[in-house]
Design goal:
Length: 173
Amino acid sequence: MGTINISKKYTAKEKAYIPAILVGLKITMKHFIKGFFFRHHNTVMYPEVKRDYSDRFRGKHFISVDANKTENCTACYLCETICPAECIHIVADEREEENNPYGVKKEKKPVSFDIDALRCCFCGFCEEACPKDAIKLSGNYEMAVSARQDAIYDLDLLKRDMNGRKEKTEVKK
Ligand code: SF4
Ligand code: SF4
């Protein structure tokens, strides 16, 4: 079997390293001067300063509610079925008639609705599949938790967590 010689012959300039170091220093000084004298920073002082993300950003989920704070979800399972990460788990039951925002007897409701954010890949399929515009992905990117169980969003948290994009937080009539 033949061998490939990958050793490279360096020029005297390359062996000296000085030109490459000077080029690197020039770039460093350029950024230092821009930041120190002209206050041009590419970073922000998070968490005191927060960036505005694109309106298309897909962050933490929430479930929209109607004027009575009843979730718009009818537990149809479409989001759970389409989810490629299998991280949505819904338990459904019949919705009591007096608390039924749709005026339809036997409309379903989620008894529990859990999303495992550690499995979620934020593809947005659940949002697209939902026929009731109930499940949404907000602009909230602050999802750090200190325990694994805190990354499982339950129905109460999903209904409460509506700090997302403006058009996504409007209360459904
Ligand atoms: S964003 Fe995608 S992966 Fe996450 S819960 Fe929705 S469908 Fe599943
Ligand atoms: S969130 Fe939407 S798609 Fe998911 S179960 Fe509820 S109504 Fe169906």
